[in-house]
Amino acid sequence: MGGTTGAFDFDAVVVGAGAVGLTCGYALARRGLSVVVVEQEHAIGQGVSSRNSEVVHGGLYYPTGSLRARLCVQGRRMLYPFLASHGVAYDRCGKLVVATEEAEVPRLEAIERQALVNEVEGIAPLSAAQAHAMEPELRAVMALISPESGVMDSHGYMLALRGEIEDRGGAVVVDTPFAGAEALAGGGFRVRTGGADPADLTCRLLVTAPGLGAQAVAGRIEGFPVALIPKAHFGKGVYFVFHGRAPFSRLVYPPPIPGALGVHYRRDLGGQARFGPDLEYVDHEDYSVDPARVVGFESYIRKFWPGLPPNALSPDYAGIRPKIHGPGEPQPDFRIDGPQVHGLEGLVTLFGIESPGLTSSLAIGEEVAGLLGA
Ligand SMILES: Cc1cc2nc3c(=O)[nH]c(=O)nc-3n(C[C@H](O)[C@H](O)[C@H](O)COP(=O)(O)OP(=O)(O)OC[C@H]3O[C@@H](n4cnc5c(N)ncnc54)[C@H](O)[C@@H]3O)c2cc1C
For the whole prediction, is pTM greater than 0.85? Predict the structure, then answer.
């Protein structure tokens, strides 16, 4: 590691090289600061950022005034130009939110109103006939179209972010777990890293973006108020893959379920049709996919795609949402806590960065830099 500025080894240390840690590093490096991002795994992007739907969300659903509403829309507006200018693959294919029975129509109307408040571009209601004309295999009594929604290559994105940090003289170091930090008397932090080559380094600013490790990392920052560490919950979601010709060209989402957007359809960048994720609370990181869940998936999918052939879905992969709410509890906002929350100058801690964290990531980076006065 290198990059001395003034009294500190680095201006900023960022913990975690997922999409969010990398965008934080990028935002700080763009401001001319020397940055090191420390990652415990052998490679970047092995955490939540590698096990999601890779959907660029429009920003329709999130409550007025929430960070998720603001950062999703801002992040998406920043994301497409970033992907385009860095040669990262994406497909702004659009999305249909569908009501498959009359009882769901009021929910779609509420989503439309929220999307308009959130200033999501191009949202429009579609009749059953209009939706059918766009996607002939779709069954819906009504739909909403979100033309700005799409899919992206999240690994290509993270590699581009890493390149941006390194081009500005920053470093992204793998096999380097954050082991602890203490505030220094005159400001800044001493950070301890573990692994095969433990080290101590000093920095003026510290950002923690460790995904599922958020609680453990915050607990290792001396003086961090324990009462501000939210309880961790693991919200597992599994996917099934369909091996035939992809039935729809757009994303297809039924209305959200409590705590998640629910099982949806996407055609990935390779043309493969995938369905998921569902939501199941688990007590440890378990990425197995129970083949028996296919029964529930099939009946759910047939509500909007009656043509799903029998025995056509195979277990795909699983992801785990870094939730900070338990089953039945209302879904809280992203927690992006600066000094005014926890009282430690120069520190921002992130908790509960679940969906739409990937879409929001560039805006989260800007938000974090702003909280640090960088
Ligand atoms: C099933 C599922 C579907 C989703 N779908 C979408 C979607 O379609 N669109 C969307 O916008 N969002 C989606 N999300 C949300 C999105 O994936 C996350 O919000 C985002 O990837 C979080 O990124 P992150 O950098 O915070 O976390 P991560 O990618 O998990 O990165 C954290 C990193 O920190 C590292 N780390 C942890 N502890 C330490 C330590 N002590 N020292 C050093 N490193 C450490 C980890 O190894 C990891 O690499 C989905 C999430 C899930 C689970």
Answer: yes
